[in-house]
């Protein structure tokens, strides 16, 4: 029995909290991306690992340098910078010079997140900001696709990988077009199974559709992503490409090819679902998803680039505040007719 | 079968599923807390106007004797919980920590503490007006949390016809089991109370809504309802805040009470099961509202219990009766863990709305680091009133309280589902409370 009273705090209720925390939610996404990341390393070897690490290093160092000293450890521990670096790394070509990957990571965090006020305040997806910057600055490096050496030659890196900073890269003679590039410029399709398991050329993490979906299912069960987002994006892409395919199967790619090629899956499952830059409301999420799907198909089919996921998501990011404003739920009890 | 049917019924949307945490006390029979030496009776324990004290320091009072009379229509009576002497009338600690006018009564340790009160007239002979006035003088308030004097709801507006009477036995707050014990231990009193209200209000149907996690309460009440009584028990999904009156009306009747209106405007009267049982007790024996059922529980309590506690008993004495609190106790909450009030001093007394006393240890109330809002939308999907708590929190942080009105902040019932569900640890409902209080203060200043 207490002889003296305990020292009481007066924290207001509620005192109960659900267990998921923001930093854990971030780490959950990292875990979900692990299989696809490992597959990327399997196909592209050490070079891919170095690209990813450079991108992460660029992101974390920028976060550390430009954060106030007292907020540094908290910001690094929330794992969001790590996630941005990893997501950017996974969307880079495996033979990208490492210094470019580093700059990409730095821009992703600096221009994509910190200038907006840090985590939670940015309008655009940070890793896609970094990727768009790289695409505009190093157009050749960002569209030169080198074939993977496979696990046999894991330690063999590309000639371009170790290009000294601020020097242009020189590439091995052999390059391989991505399935989308083959489709767009040579009207040549890739077997679906290769797309599903990832035996194609392309960005490090976006080749294996199966593993990306697996991670997405894990995240959906952990409530780490809003299932409406990938479902609405993928369904609308299927619908729009399916309609085009029915019009002229010789000219337009099939819906399943569209689903599994390029960055659609990684974009739909891991980037469009970034809660900060996508709508809060369920109805808004559907609108955002269909918008992304429509833009992806428009850019891929009618635009100048073979791939359009990045711009589709960035464009819809800019519409998020507007979508949020017009999709507010009706407050309970409001707008009910009374006699 | 009914359980299954209830699961598939739509009920209200959104809401949360906190751990129920009722195992410590849900099966413990109610005990009576012994009398203690001193009682502190805050005069103003409910919504509306404060009652007026009718006793003076030094005066002897009997248990159940009126010590303060209603100060207005929306006000109720207050009776002495103990035979003894009024020692002082002055400011004393009130739940929440502030000081409020209170009547301090010293118990006469040699008195028998037998209740000697006049029996009220047979309720069957009463008009609704007489009934309302008697309930006002019984001192009973709504025991579901808001503490509106009970009689106010029964004084119907002109032209309102009551169709449905609902006894709210949801008890959706974690830890609390006092309503549960009343339903299991006093089904006759509860059903008698429903009969009284049903008859006098002229209701067509009476419903007892109970969450499915209290199967024994559902069974007991069903077994006690006579076949000629128009009363049915409706099992409800276990979901917080099922006990919120508008949510429960949505769950049971699938009716959305318009904002700004009361359930009574739609012909629905809802009362907590404890309130109904207290009314039955009053009309059976004339016992005014001087004792209340308190669930003493939480991780910091040595011996959890369901106790009948005389009003005015200091929190310290109740905790001591339950074996004291663990040494690392850092917070005691009066009421439930979701909406209760933190106890600032153990001198604070048990009042009419004290449904629980919960002790939490340091580890249970530790607030982890707060992260920025990442707009994950969990609060939006938790809010049973379909507000946008993320947006409200952002506006509150910038102190844009007037802008919050455009986002319907005044519709918030402060259930705390948003704070519960926030992975970033942002105290959303706490900020909303501050905003609402500021807006109320501004409004009353303007008037």
List the helices and strands and how they pair.
The complex is a heterodimer of chains A (339) and B (447).
Chain A (H helix, E strand, L loop, with lengths): L21 H23 L1 H20 L6 H6 L2 H11 L7 H13 L15 H12 L1 H4 L36 H8 L5 H6 L11 H13 L6 H20 L7 H6 L3 H8 L10 H21 L6 H18 L13
Chain B lengths: L1 H7 L22 E2 L5 E5 L9 E2 L6 E2 L4 E4 L8 E2 L4 E10 L5 E9 L20 H11 L11 H5 L9 E6 L8 H8 L1 H15 L3 E7 L3 H10 L6 E6 L8 H9 L14 E5 H13 L5 E7 L7 E6 L4 H7 L7 E6 L6 E2 L13 E6 H4 L12 H5 L6 H9 L3 H6 L10 H5 L6 H19 L1
Parallel strand pairs in B: 1-14, 9-10, 9-12, 10-11, 13-17
Antiparallel strand pairs in B: 2-8, 3-5, 4-7, 5-6, 7-8, 13-14, 15-16, 15-17
Helix pairs in contact in B: 4-6, 5-8, 12-15
CATH names the topology of the domain at 2-27 and 119-285 in chain B as Rossmann fold
Percent strand of chain B:
15-25%
What oligomeric state best describes the polypeptide chains here?
heterodimer
Total of DSSP H or I helical runs spanning 4+ residues of chain A: 15
Helix content of chain A: 55-70%
Query: Based on CA inertia axes, which overall geometry of chain A fits?
Result: globular
Structural commentary:
- The complex is a heterodimer of chains A (339) and B (447).
- Chain A is built from 15 helices and no strands.
- The model of chain A has no long low-confidence stretch (mean pLDDT 89).
- Helix content of chain A is 56%, strand content 0%.
- Chain A has two domains: 23-176, no CATH class; 182-327, no CATH class.
- Chain B is an alpha/beta fold and 447 residues long.
- Among the domains of chain B are: 2-27 and 119-285, Rossmann fold (3-Layer(aba) Sandwich); 378-446, no CATH class.
- Chain B contains 15 helices and 17 strands.
- Chain B has helices spanning 2-8, 128-138, 150-154, 178-185, 187-201, 215-224, 245-253, 273-285, 315-321, 362-365, 378-382, 389-397, 401-406, 417-421, 428-446; strands at residues 31-32, 38-42, 52-53, 60-61, 66-69, 78-79, 84-93, 99-107, 164-169, 205-211, 231-236, 268-272, 291-297, 305-310, 329-334, 341-342, 356-361.
- In chain B, the strands form four sheets. Chain B has a six-stranded mixed sheet with strand order 1-14-13-17-15-16, with helices on both faces. In chain B, strands 2-8-7-4 form a four-stranded antiparallel sheet, with no helix packed on it. Chain B has a four-stranded parallel sheet with strand order 11-10-9-12, with helices on both faces.
- At the A-B interface, helix 1 of A face helix 9, strand 15, strand 16, helix 11 and helix 14 of B.
